[in-house]
Amino acid sequence: MIQAKHISKTYGTTNVLKDVSFSLAPSEIVSIVGPSGAGKTTLLHILGTLEHADAHPQTELIIDGKTINGLSDKALSAFRNDSLGFVFQFHQLLPEFTAIENICMPAFIKGTSKQAAEKRAMELLDFLELSNRAKHKPSELSGGEQQRIAVARALINKPSLLLADEPSGNLDSTTANKLHDMFFNLRDTFSISMVLVTHNKSLAARADRMLTLVDGQWS
Ligand code: ADP
After folding, report:
1. 38 in ligand 1 pocket by Cβ < 6 Å?
2. How remote is the CA of residue 109 from the centroid of ligand 1, in Å?
3. CATH class label, 2-218
């Protein structure tokens, strides 16, 4: 699902990632842990094509069979919207839109019809036990519900890969555990691969593999 080789990232004179390689199998869930500032978010952003790795001749990034190096910004945006799902610590739902409108947004960007997008959104809402919240605005939802809506939005275009950065960082432990259960249910049902950056020990330990990043390198 992901083959990333010799990934380095430098900001100014700071070497944030130092020749990191990473691979992810289809349907695999990998957690990435490590101290603050280790480079976890930077690596996740590079794997999600939100940032570029430093240009080195040996650097390689292949996601879902697609070679990322050299794609134009426009091609990258389309690839991201069609093939990748993102969940962040703060849900980043648009406050003026309802849950279902938020979920459908990436599908509309892709050109999916309203009818087809809403059908898929309702299936996801059903799966995430939120069918009765479709018409609510984010401010009318609990933190856990908002985050599950964000997960549904990430999945509307049927990505094969979900990337999450501290997805439960803002939730109490009961709500966090419910969200974690959903990640594993989603993987088992839809065969989605996941990379989860987390400080949550129980989520990290439940992953198929747990990797530790320290000072820009695997430890
Ligand atoms: P983590 O997710 O493990 O906490 P990050 O990837 O967020 O670590 O950050 C790693 C290091 O890179 C930190 O020292 C951070 O300050 C630095 N960094 C991250 N993004 C930028 C940026 N856009 N410009 C400069 N430095 C950055």
Report:
1. yes
2. 30
3. alpha beta
